[in-house]
Amino acid sequence: MRLQYPSSIRIICLPCTGKVDLIHLLRSFEKGADGVYVVGCMEGSCQFTSGNLRARKRVEQARALLNAVGIGGDRVQMYNLSSSEAPRFVEIAEEMTRNILALGPNPIKIARKKAAA
Amino acid sequence: MIVAKQKPIEEILEGVRGAGRILVAGCNECVTVCEAGGKKEVAVLASALRMSFMNQGQEVKIDEITLERQCDREYVEELRKLIDQYDVVLSLACGVGVQFLAETYLRTPVIPGVDTCFMGATEQRGVWTERCQGCGQCILARTGGICPVSRCAKRLFNGPCGGSTRGKCEIDKDLDCGWQLIINRLKELDRLEDYEVLLPIKDWSKERAGGPRRIVREDVR
Amino acid sequence: MITEIKTPSKLEKTLKAGHLAVTSECGPPRGSDGEVIKKKAEMIRNHVDAINITDNQTSVTRLCSLASVIHIKLMGLEPILQMVTRDRNRIALQSDILGAASFDIFNILCLSGDHQVFGDNPKGQNVFDLDSMQLIQTVRHMRDEGKFLGGDPIERPPRMFVGAAANPFADPFEIRVPRLAKKIAAGVEFIQTQCIFNVEKFKLYMKLAADRGLTEKAFILAGVTPLKSVGMAKYMKNRVPGMDVPDEVVKRMSGVPKDKQAEEGIKICVETILQLKEVPGVRGFHVMAIEWEEKVPEIVEKSGLYPRPKIE
User: Fold this and answer.
1) How far apart are CA B142 and CA B137, in angstroms?
2) Is C289 left (phi over 0), alpha (psi -120 to 50) or beta?
């Protein structure tokens, strides 16, 4: 549909969100990502039955860990939509970007800059 | 297997405070199966620790290793060439592994990353329940294969007590009454008359009460 | 029916003489004032044959049963030492039995005990070195063989009439009578049941017990409790494990105005006793009026169980 979405988003394609492991979410933040969101199929419509349900659980685990280490659990989110819902995809992208901008950069980046100075 | 649960990250962070070089050591056996201290858990914990330290502006070296077991010398020896590179080893193995590492590497503090809980089985993914308390004198043949020591909250040998309600234990309505399970099993085995056999007073000297235990097999030494 | 007297227990003598026995219980205080126990016992002095003293019931720490029964004995009354296996190992159990015997306590009730999670020390250890049936065996062994569990002879063995509890209303019903049989095989001589509100179910239990000859081998004392209020009836019905309070009883309690409920509760209790008197195998009553001991005399009198027989 050639809709525009914010350019600050990097997309990583997967056959199923069930392939996202907790460590992938955490490593992204370790490497300086400001936010990570996982976009999977509607619950009940997962092609691999429950991959998206597992992904949601892992996102919850990541949120808890990120809160515990001071990065902020709100930086990681799970969304569900059907692959034909392009406008919804854009909506999510814009919502996520807005939320992350409000939260500010990943505190690790700030801390690293300070240490380098 | 031995079932353990990872300690809260706050407690772990407290334990490694001040260390500049940390080795997170996992174990490929029991703690992997109960998803507390295997390779995956080591990676996640190490990543979380790195982020926590970075967030506080501290540069800390955090390495990861997962040994086949931490309760056998040949595997524990694999750390010999690395151990001096670290200020502390955070072991995610069960209490046995933590101690075995500590006994082997006397000059490096080894701290536990999990709380070791019980000997149990995987009922389903994510649910592990206790089955054995290592009493040293197994009587499962007399109770239809269900243990009154580990599955009765009062370890009664001639239960159930008066608190058993609709097959559940008086202390927790989601906990099966061990003796109800035994009775059900004896019924299925057509051996309900075994229920009336008085089980004798237990010799507790074979379990914890008798002191730390050892088994020696001269024939294989 | 057994008639051979084995101990100086007044309760044993009363039962073996063919009388219906009456026992009741007193809960010790949560402090060191022995007068509390003495006052409670004094209230029921002439209306019971023996008095149970509970042992840290519901795992709430109280003045111990052993000290309490000594207070009662020194008043000239007949105590029943209740002993749970939750808090003491076999050394302490045998030792406390000797302690009680040294004061000529002639009755003991052997119990496992409620789990400590219910009390004021849920983080404490529990012992359960023995269970209630093994404790019964132990007391009988100490009395009849005159030996400790370890095998050594006892100087002046305890002479105790051995009892246990039975709950005809606990789950599963099908093993309630086998359980009674087990306790009798272990050596129990008298039984106090959980309080009865469902007389029909109790009758069934007693019939099954009688069919196996169990009512000839042990003296079964039927437990009764007067309800103070409809709230108490509902609480016991819904929140106490192993308690069977039929709907009719709750309805009856709620059918009277609040200020009349206590009176109704006592009425129900007396009616229950009168019905139970007719049930074969019932050899007495255990009146449990927790924190309401002052009503025991009224209940005993209205049930035609007063005066108590004089036993030497």
Assistant:
1) 12
2) beta
- Using alpha carbons, select from B200, B154, B202, B152 the residue that is nearest to residue B180: B152
Q: Do A22 and B44 touch (CB under 8 A)?
A: yes
Q: Which amino acid would we find at residue A4? A: Q
Q: What pTM does this model have?
A: 0.91
Provide the chain C residues 176-195 that lie in CB contact (below 8 A) with chain B. Answer: 178, 181-182, 185-186, 194
- What is the number of alpha carbons within 13 Å of residue B152 lying toward its C-beta? 27
For B57, nearest residue in chain A (alpha carbons): A111
Distances (CA, A) of B217 to B73, B221, C76: 18, 6, 62
Torsion, CA C272, CA C273, CA C278, CA C281, rounded to 10:
110
**How far apart (Å, rounded) are the C-alpha atoms in residues C109 and C132?**
9
Using a CB-CB distance cutoff of 8 angstroms, which residues of chain B are in contact with residue C130? 201
Domains along chain C?
10-302 (3.20.20.220)
**CA distance linking residue C139 with residue C148, whole number of Å:** 9
Residue A76 has pLDDT above 80, yes or no: yes
Q: Which residues of chain C have pLDDT under 50?
A: none
Gap between the Cα atoms of C13 and C3, Å rounded: 9
Q: What pLDDT, on a 0 to 100 scale, did the predictor assign at position C1?
A: 66
Site of tokens 């009764």 = C224
Domains and CATH numbers, chain B: 2-118 (3.40.50.2300), 133-208 (no CATH)
Distances (CA, A) of C223 to A9, C167, C191, C197, C283: 75, 9, 10, 9, 11
- A12 pLDDT higher than 80: yes
| Complex ipTM value | 0.91
Q: Measured between CB atoms, does B138 come within 8 Å of chain A? A: no
Judge whether residue B157 has pLDDT over 70: yes
